[in-house]
Amino acid sequence: MLKLYIGNKNYSSWSMRPWVLLKQAGIPFEEVMVRFDSFAADSQFRKSMAPVSPSGKVPVLVDDGFPVWDTLAIAEYLAEKFPEYRLWPQDTQARARARSVSAEMHAGFQHLRGACGMNIEADLSQAGALIWRDKPAVRADVARLVAMWTELLEAHKGPMLFGDFSVADAMFAPVVMRLSRFALPVPDAITAYMHRVETLPGVAAWIQGALQEQDFLDFEEPHRLGR
Questions:
Q1: pLDDT tens across 5-62, in order?
Q2: pTM (predicted TM-score)
Q3: For residue 195, how far is the Cα from the chain centroid?
Q4: SS3 content of the chain, % helix, strand, coil (to 5)
Q5: 133 and 25 housed in the same domain
Q6: Which CA distances in Å does 34 have to 54, 197, 202?
Q7: Is the sign of the CA dihedral 159, 90, 85, 68 positive or negative?
Q8: Are 185 and 96 found together in one domain?
Q9: How does DSSP classify residue 29?
Q10: Residue 106 belongs to what domain range?
Q11: Is 1 exposed, middle or buried, given 0-12, 13-18 or 19+ CB atoms closer than 10 A?
């Protein structure tokens, strides 16, 4: 069986992406959660991950002893191994566009990601209001997201970005968490898409797991002193 190594569900946006992809598609896998204690070279997290992947990071997919790291590489590996699950859109141009926006997510939106870390169990709306007021680069990232999602939802008639659930929706699921928890303002149609993402069974299961962790990590918490 496939084995997926992940970090804390409350904080690990990159772990969320392949976990949700596997769960929502219905591909069986074993979850191995490696708790973040710190990212120092001598941390227990680093020691646990060193034998699993040369990157020393999560997520890592292990298939019969063969590790695949990096979220997009994992998605591509799963799409090739399980073509029957149609993880990418079937239309050639739609598939190319889905890969383009997924790669844009992978490499971009750094201002939003830097200012609004993923924290599923927290209400960070007050911090979000200040971030929105003071950080024009975050507003620009959100504007790009709104334009992208609006175009895709209109072109493919929803409910997901390319009609049916795909890798692209899994890639943006942690962004939905950020926009929601920081209460950043978006149009009604985008709010509706975010609600549909949060209620996907795979995403809802991840959220439930995050809420059950009850694990406050101060180095992941720039906006709170405690839970």
A1: 999 999 999 999 999 999 999 999 999 999 999 989 899 999 999 999 999 999 999 9
A2: 0.97
A3: 15
A4: 55, 10, 35
A5: no
A6: 16, 25, 20
A7: negative
A8: yes
A9: E
A10: 92-208
A11: exposed
Please return the burial class of 84, using the count of CB atoms within 10 Å of its CB with bins 0-12, 13-18 and 19+. Answer: exposed
What tokens does 112 get?
Answer: 């939003």
CA distance 27 to 195: 23
Contacts 24+ apart (CB under 8 A), 45-54: 45/7, 49/5, 52/5, 53/5
Q: How far apart, in whole angstroms, are the C-alpha atoms of residue 49 and residue 34?
A: 8
The CA distance from 178 to 119, in Å, is 7
In a domain, 193, yes or no: yes
For residues 203 and 96, membership in a common domain is answered with yes
Residues 172 and 139 in one domain: yes
Q: In what order do the strands lie in the sheet with 29-33?
A: 29-33, 2-6, 60-63, 66-69
